């Protein structure tokens, strides 16, 4: 079958492209935002990605078009699909019908930590000799690809609460029918489709309704927002983490969370010594360990696997070191994610200077939500540099008065080079390509001399 994917470079859709090709389909796609790591993944898989949403990209006529949720009516490709009568389907529905209907689905949902926790679960199963299938909204370093079919019944899926498609406004995750479900946390986000937190909680409860009574829901006991969801009705056994009275506990052995023990009802189950840092990642790990026990992996075995876990691209990823200055890339696009990432890096580097670089790019950020939360979220930084893109309709300077404001990335790179010094840590946060600023900055830093630039 010839499949064309509209929005193929999205983190979810790029994974679908990989799965469709592994199933033996001919896969091509179109997108307007083409940047790593997904563009790299598609190229490595030999999947053609066409620039733009042009009607002629649908020639030769595909047998089916999978439509991403970023596209809407009025898009030339969408109008061509409808006018030509080409069969179409959403990514979430295609995944459910083609792959998930006969699998033991392990779904990871929540505002934050979905990608990392999904990667942990997939790695624990793989390390135990179970080649699970997975579809993750990022590229786990242990696998080097965001999706695979797998050869066992288990399938790990990052369960996104964003809407499904222009013709299906339900959350994507209601299609997945998990047997094991992790609910990491729940905060307001996606202001472009949800009016308030209650609307998101309603979608989460639709998800809870699909979990069988012989399944398991693992949830963050600290989150009142999740408690509210479950109080609407829950027909499935539950386990909690991150709560002082939870049966499952993690005990830090280091202040930065790079080592910890795991206990169940007071009995030590194992230790984790890993590359990651931050209490939020410890909680992600605990959720993954509990979920994996539900499918038959002993906690000790899971702890040992996590000690070999290599994290995910764009999650506090070190992109390089130039002139003793370390540059990181992080996907943080919500004040909570910014805050916990900043805290984790601070715990790791101690008193060294942290220079935060932020591009507010998510739909919620562009709409002006969280303006008041930005400055507190960035308070761990020694200096803050802000990119005011033309698409941002509000003033970053007013939201973060102590930040250095830039209106183009060339100026931003120049200012960073002038400001930084050896042993600094530059944390770049954006959920977009950010005009390849990471590599451009490293190149510029390498040209830096004590007296200026070459």
UniProtKB/TrEMBL annotation:
An example Gene Ontology molecular-function term: ATP binding
Catalysed reactions, as listed in the record: UDP-N-acetyl-alpha-D-muramate + L-alanyl-gamma-D-glutamyl-meso-2,6-diaminopimelate + ATP = UDP-N-acetyl-alpha-D-muramoyl-L-alanyl-gamma-D-glutamyl-meso-2,6-diaminopimelate + ADP + phosphate + H(+)
InterPro entries per record: Mpl, Mur-like_cat_sf, Mur_ligase_C, Mur_ligase_C_dom_sf, Mur_ligase_cen, Mur_ligase_N, MurCDEF_pg_biosynth
Obligatory cofactor(s): Mg(2+)
Keyword Cell cycle: yes
Record bears the keyword Transmembrane helix: no
Pathway the protein contributes to: Cell wall biogenesis; peptidoglycan recycling
A biological process from GO: peptidoglycan biosynthetic process
Similarity comment: Belongs to the MurCDEF family. Mpl subfamily.
Purpose of the protein: Reutilizes the intact tripeptide L-alanyl-gamma-D-glutamyl-meso-diaminopimelate by linking it to UDP-N-acetylmuramate.
Name assigned to this protein: UDP-N-acetylmuramate--L-alanyl-gamma-D-glutamyl-meso-2,6-diaminoheptandioate ligase
Organism: Beggiatoa alba B18LD
């Amino acid at each position: 079958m010839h499949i064309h994917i509209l929005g193929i470079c999205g983190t979810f859709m790029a994974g679908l492209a990989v799965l469709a090709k592994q199933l033996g389909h001919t896969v091509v796609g179109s997108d307007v935002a083409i940047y790593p790591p997904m563009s790299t993944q598609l190229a490595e898989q030999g999947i053609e990605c066409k620039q733009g949403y042009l009607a002629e990209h649908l020639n030769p006529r595909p047998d089916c078009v999978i439509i991403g949720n970023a596209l809407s009516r009025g898009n030339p490709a969408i109008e061509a699909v409808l006018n030509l009568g080409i069969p179409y389907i959403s990514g979430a529905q295609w995944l459910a019908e083609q792959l998930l209907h006969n699998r033991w689905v392990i779904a990871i949902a929540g505002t934050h930590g979905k990608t990392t926790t999904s990667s942990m679960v997939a790695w624990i199963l793989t390390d135990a000799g179970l080649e699970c299938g997975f579809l993750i909204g990022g590229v786990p370093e242990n696998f080097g690809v965001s999706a695979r079919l797998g050869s066992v019944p288990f399938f790990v899926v990052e369960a996104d609460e964003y809407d499904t498609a222009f013709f299906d406004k339900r959350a994507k995750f209601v299609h997945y029918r998990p047997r094991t479900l992790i609910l990491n946390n729940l905060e307001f986000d996606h202001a472009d489709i949800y009016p308030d937190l209650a609307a998101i909680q309603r979608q989460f409860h639709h998800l809870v309704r699909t979990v069988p009574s012989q399944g398991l829901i693992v949830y963050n006991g600290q989150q009142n927002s999740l408690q509210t969801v479950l109080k609407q009705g829950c027909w499935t056994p539950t386990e909690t983490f991150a709560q002082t009275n939870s049966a499952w506990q993690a005990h830090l052995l280091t202040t930065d969370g790079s080592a910890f023990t795991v206990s169940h009802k007071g009995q030590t189950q194992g230790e984790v010594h890993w590359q990651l840092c931050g209490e939020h990642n410890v909680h992600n790990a605990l959720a993954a360990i509990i979920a994996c026990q539900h499918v038959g992996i002993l906690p000790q075995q899971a702890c040992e696997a996590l000690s070999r876990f290599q994290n995910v691209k764009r999650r506090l990823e070190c992109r390089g070191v130039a002139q003793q200055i370390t540059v990181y890339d992080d996907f943080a696009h919500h004040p909570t994610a910014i805050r916990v990432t900043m805290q984790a890096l601070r715990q790791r580097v101690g008193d060294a200077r942290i220079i935060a670089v932020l591009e507010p790019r998510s739909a919620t950020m562009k709409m002006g939500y969280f303006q008041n939360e930005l400055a507190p979220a960035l308070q761990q930084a020694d200096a803050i540099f802000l990119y005011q893109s033309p698409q941002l309709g509000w003033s970053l300077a007013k939201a973060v008065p102590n930040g250095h404001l830039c209106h183009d990335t060339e100026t931003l790179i120049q200012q960073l080079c002038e400001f930084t010094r050896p042993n600094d840590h530059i944390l770049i946060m954006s959920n977009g390509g950010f005009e390849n600023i990471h590599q451009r900055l490293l190149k510029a830093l390498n040209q830096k001399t004590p007296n200026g630039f070459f």
